[in-house]
Amino acid sequence: RIVQHPLGIAQRAHDEAQFATATLSGNIVTGDSAGNSVTITGAVTLNHAVGTTLTIDTDNATNDGTISISGTVTGAGRHLALLGGTISTAALTTTGGSNQDGGAVTLTGSGAVTVSGTITSSGGRFRAGTPGRSAGAVALTGSSVTLAAVTAAGTSATAGGQSGGQGGAILVDATAGTITVGGNLTTTGGNGNGAGTGGNAG
């Protein structure tokens, strides 16, 4: 079976997909075969539509492949979902662009989930005449979970009596082992301006 991935290369589903750096515009899905892992050794730019989800999925009935991303992943206002066996990434940044909500980040592994850099899913820069933007939710689930820090803060309104953005919800769930957190988990809402109300924490 052949799977077309967004870099324009047809990859057999049972092969391991390996890239150096990558600009991703669509999903990567592997088949239910041994060695169905995805490895990216450099930086990743998310280029799918703002407000939609790009998924890397190695989660199967029998063979859950490893997902490993060594470089920073960035994608303004874009949602990211990684589903598989053991999952490891560096920093993940989905902060919204100007007047955009932050993108949600979901990592779900049947094995250990490790994020060595900060996850940042905060709301984007305030634009006059509009409310502050909200952060994307962050959900990490694995047999054990190790993470550096998470910042999912809503944007403060600075003019026009506008409301602040909402902080993003953070979920960390270890299904069998331990949770190790190296830094702060920040979910603050943005401040309102004038009569505008502040955003809630996630």
Main features:
mainly beta; seven-stranded parallel beta sheet; 202 residues; elongated; disordered N terminus; 35% strand; 0% helix
Describe the protein in words.
The chain is an all-beta fold and 202 residues long. It has no helices and 22 strands. The strands form 4 sheets. Strands 3-6-9-12-15-18-21 form a 7-stranded parallel β-sheet, with no helix packed on it. A 7-stranded parallel β-sheet has the order 4-7-10-13-16-19-22, with no helix packed on it. Strands 5-8-11-14-17-20 form a 6-stranded parallel β-sheet, with no helix packed on it. Strand 1 and strand 2 form a beta hairpin. The model is unreliable at 1-15 (pLDDT under 50).
Span between termini: 42 Å
Structural class: mainly beta
> What is the string of SSEs from the N terminus onward?
EEEEEEEEEEEEEEEEEEEEEE
Spans of at least 5 consecutive residues whose pLDDT stays below 50 are: 1-15
Broad shape: elongated
Major sheet attributes = 7 strands, parallel
- Gyration radius over CA: 18 Å
Rounded mean pLDDT is 91
Q: What's the quaternary structure here?
A: single chain
Q: Report the total helices.
A: 0
Biggest sheet, spatial arrangement of strands:
3-6-9-12-15-18-21
